[in-house]
Amino acid sequence: VFALIIVGLGFWLTQQKGDAALFRISTVKKAEKLSGLQFGSADRKLMMEDISSNLENYESIRNLRIPNSVQPSIQFNPVPIGAQFDKIRRQIRWSPAGEISRPNNLEELAFASVAQLAELIRTRQVNSTELTKMYLSRLKEHGPTLECVVTLTEDLALKQAARADREIAAGKYRGPLHGIPYGAKDLLSVEGYKTTWGATPYKDQMIDDNAAVVKRLEEAGAVLVAKLTLGALAWGDVWFGGKTKNPWNLEEGSSGSSAGSGSATAAGLVAFAIGTETWGSIVSPSTRCGVTGLRPTFGRVSRAGAMALSWSMDKIGPMCRTVEDCAMVFNAIYGPDGQD
């Protein structure tokens, strides 16, 4: 709705002449009445820069003459004409994890890579429940300062971790994500938990289904410990609960819109996180917070169960502490699912 107000106001302003084209707070208030919403003065001030920018964009569009015969671009296909690709899915050989042993203080593993944590779990030096409790503790301690957590999924996480421990003890090891705690951007639906989209009108929204990427990570044995913040309606780093911080500089925001995913991963509150990108929402917070983000090619990962910002541009990808970690997560979530 916020985005629609900005777009609508931008279009309205392009119709005005002279002084009437100047943006005013009163115009936003009128739009609020039409939309059945009410914003505070701080929210209206945040809108002003975007509306002015959109006004310039609309003026440029109006000056662009496109004949009626030109069809819109409604499909994106990255494959060059006539190109053929190998369609066989082969097993990946990951880099050797190297020697790693359990520290006396488990919290020393907070910043370990997925590959290192996976080796500790595989060799049964550490179990998933221990790791999950450690990350939950860090989320509770540092999440309020960073304003990067919307909802802790503690009950679900402990159940998933206990199941992972039982399976691994029985010799059923699913792979490098088995038993690894992670966080998901809160525009991905999770059954039994709120999916707020970071916006006040949806802060109590319940979507009783799991997003496709959440299902695939569960199949890989990963443990969901938290739903992480995003800028309201996938825009920036300001959400209904505050402004998500950069862990390395609390005076600045984490950037967005995968704000909590970048902040929590950089701060060692999760082993990895899932973000989404329409236009910079993985790469920007990854750059700001100093993590590794992978923005996959459009269509590579199913968006079923995710909030749609742009049907022709939205992408889902991992945010991790190493490049190989991103490859491990991506390997578990990519591929068609028949829904998207």
TrEMBL record:
Q: Which residues form the signal peptide?
A: none
Q: Which GO terms describe its molecular function?
A: glutaminyl-tRNA synthase (glutamine-hydrolyzing) activity
Task: Quote the InterPro entries the UniProt record gives.
Answer: Amidase (IPR000120), Amidase_dom (IPR023631), AS_sf (IPR036928)
Q: Which Pfam families match?
A: Amidase
Q: Where is the Amidase domain?
A: 130-339
Q: Which Gene3D superfamilies match?
A: Amidase signature (AS) domain
Spell out the protein name for this chain: Amidase domain-containing protein
Organism from which the protein derives: marine metagenome
